[in-house]
Amino acid sequence: MSRVFSGIQPTGQPHIGNYFGAMRNYVSLGEQYGKNSIYCVVDLHALTNPAAFDPRLLAQRTFEMALANFAVGLDPSKVVFFVQSHVPEHQELSWIFTNLTPVGELERMTQYKDKAGQLESVPAGLLMYPVLMAADILLYKADTVPVGEDQTQHIELTREIARRFNHTFGETFPEPKAVYNKDALRIPGVDGHGKMSKSKGENSTLGLLEPLDAVWQKLRAAPTDPARVRRTDPGNPDVCLIFDYHKLFSDLPIIEMVNVECRRAGIGCVDCKKKLMEGVTVALSPIQERAAELAQHPDDIRDALAQGAKEARAIAAPVMAEVREKVGFLKL
């Protein structure tokens, strides 16, 4: 049976982009693949983002990301779910892969160039990010990786690293394939500036566990069609992020009504946002209620993560034993 692997960063509060882009997919794949579904909170990757990494908050955000995944329906007894830093084999395999990966290939990564261009001082870890990602995946010999389209280049590098290791040391790793969530949109930030991202701060995100009144305040202030200056001006839903959110949260009759009425100025932006908030409330309320229940028993969440790490290491340890033998490390 195929083995699925995916990781999610704890660089900020879980938001609707995480939910629609990854977390719902984790639940459905978990039902399909069971314990061959391996997911982790990639706290080591979080260290590569100086703007988002805060030592005082890393443990809290890691815990909250696990809590949010369980609140949306992921059952840790049915899948393997753990925290990346709790399985040290990730770092060990990453170091071996580092020595097989030319710097030039890493410097050509689009995400590296984009992020490095925003920094005054570029940490070496940012360059090595896709190597650690390759180790995350190949450590479990996963062949199926649910990712966003922005990770395609990293998956291609993972496949190349697998080929290079196999050629150098003998057949060991499969070449994983990316699986895209076709239902997920490239969800725009609520501030209207590009993709919703934790690294941009909370002004860009609609938090999955954020109080609904705070969500409404963000939606109420969110930009709409810039050409629609007055209530009587017809709008264009195709350029409005609120309409993108309707596609996520509203039922089909509401989506169709907004599409028609906005274009003929039959509905104003505030009323459109109120309709959206109704769908947001229906979707997020049960998740938040479940999260509040889970938060009353933090030790249960930590126990689930400890069990997940134990299960992950049971898979990772023999893979690393095989790798060490093939690389030629001295046995004791």
Automatic annotation (TrEMBL):
ATP binds at Q9, P10, T11, G17, N18, G148, E149, D150, I187, K195, M196, S197, K198, S199. The lineage of its organism: Bacteria, Thermotogati, Deinococcota, Deinococci, Deinococcales. Keywords: Aminoacyl-tRNA synthetase, ATP-binding, Cytoplasm, Ligase, Nucleotide-binding, Protein biosynthesis. Transmembrane segments: none annotated. It is an enzyme of class 6 (ligase). InterPro entries: aa-tRNA-synth_I_CS, aa-tRNA-synth_Ic, Rossmann-like_a/b/a_fold, Trp-tRNA-ligase, Trp-tRNA-ligase_bac-type, Trp-tRNA_synthetase. It holds the Pfam family tRNA-synt_1b. Belongs to the class-I aminoacyl-tRNA synthetase family. GO terms for molecular function: ATP binding; tryptophan-tRNA ligase activity. A motif ('KMSKS' region) lies at residues 195-199. SUPFAM superfamilies: Nucleotidylyl transferase. One of its GO terms (cellular component) is cytosol. This is Tryptophan--tRNA ligase. Its main location: cytoplasm. A motif ('HIGH' region) lies at residues 10-18. It is found in: Cytoplasm. It catalyses: tRNA(Trp) + L-tryptophan + ATP = L-tryptophyl-tRNA(Trp) + AMP + diphosphate + H(+). The keyword Aminoacyl-tRNA synthetase applies. It comes from Deinococcus marmoris. GO terms for biological process: tryptophanyl-tRNA aminoacylation. The keyword Metal-binding does not apply. Its EC number is 6.1.1.2. L-tryptophan binds at D136. HAMAP family: Trp_tRNA_synth_B (MF_00140_B). Homodimer. Catalyzes the attachment of tryptophan to tRNA(Trp). The gene is trpS.
